[in-house]
Amino acid sequence: MLEGLRKPTEIIVIVVTLLSYGCPVQAIVHAFDLDERTVASWRDRAGAHCEQVHHALIETGTLDLVHVQADEIRVKGRNMIAWMGLAMMVSTRLWLAGTVSLTRDKGLADALMQQVRRAALSLRPLLVLTDGWNAYPGSIRRAFREKVKKQAGVGRASLVLWPQLHIGTVIKRTEKKRVVEITRRMAHGVLTQAEELLQRSGGGTVLNTAFIERLNGTMRERLASLTRKCRHSACRLQALHAGMYLIGCTYNFCVAHHELSKAKHWGVACTPAMASGLTDHVWSVCELLHYKVAPCPWVEPTRRGRPRKQAFCDPVTPQRSRFPRVRLRKGVLCSVTS
Q1: Are 132 and 153 spatial neighbours (Cβ–Cβ below 8 Å)?
Q2: Is the pLDDT of residue 336 over 70?
């Protein structure tokens, strides 16, 4: 992330740290005498680097999720309304997935659940709790299924849902900005098994979305464009996308979680990544920005177009010389044969 930047590394790390805690860009500009475009460029570069770290360390298919909660944030931007979908692992408070879209449709839910699927161990008991948005159950079913060959011999495999997948929805009805009624129901699975997974993950005794709503509050607190701490609200999806990954990655690796650090959990300063077994210490922002992501393995490119003609060598027929034939005029001697 820091390659090619001329400013001192200490200044860049301080600026990125302030951005990850919700400091407005204009305050950083006046404090460090920087250009606004420079600060925005550092934010975008840090967000792109954090996205690579997230893909390399979390989306590896090694986490036994047990209990996942998902929700979305409505973002009021300048001349636009955007939606930010978030998902987290309840037992370790790990932020699993995030996506930004201009529309709140099936594509947003599909992208979010596919990202959660890439982080999960296959065919493990899983409870997914969401709000009452009707796009979630179908997206969860499409994400958490495996190919199974039901008949021997030639034929296509069928996509079968995970046998221990449970989907719950929590619908809240409000009046005058107060919750007056909560409806809990199972969209897929068995309620008794879902309650067992709730107790196993420490996510309460009834179906709820309290943990993802707390994460939504953290995201709104630390992303300056969501808290209106800057001159204008969000105007580009790319800035929202980069800010989401910057805050999510620092939340996972660099900030000790208050609840996880209590004596009944770990008893020491603990981040969600430490609770998930991804690291053994609290990272600094400098360590996060210097983390080297392994490049993708090289894959030989697919040759396109017509195949090349293979040269056919006949041992009997002499091969034609690749040099042009020399034609001599009448009465002129060749310098080779004289």
Answers
A1: no
A2: no
